Amino acid sequence: RPSLVSTALTALASNYNGSSDLQLERMNVYFNEANGDKYVPRAVLVDLEPGTMDPVPAGPFGELFRPDNFVFGQSGA
Question: Could you tell me how many helices (H) and strands (E) the chain has, helices first?
């Protein structure tokens, strides 16, 4: 039985792709509903060096994250 997080992250378009009413009721624990059935992870990605987070938006799950949830410094520690 897949978890709520893995179920939601399975769909690259970030649509809810499960069959459990209970999971759908609790989506707001890990995700914010954008519009319609689109869900965005509740996450803040933080690092002191901006280069370490560059692969995230370019990766296969990059479209799930909002750009304003990335927080980074100007140079490493």
Answer: 3, 4
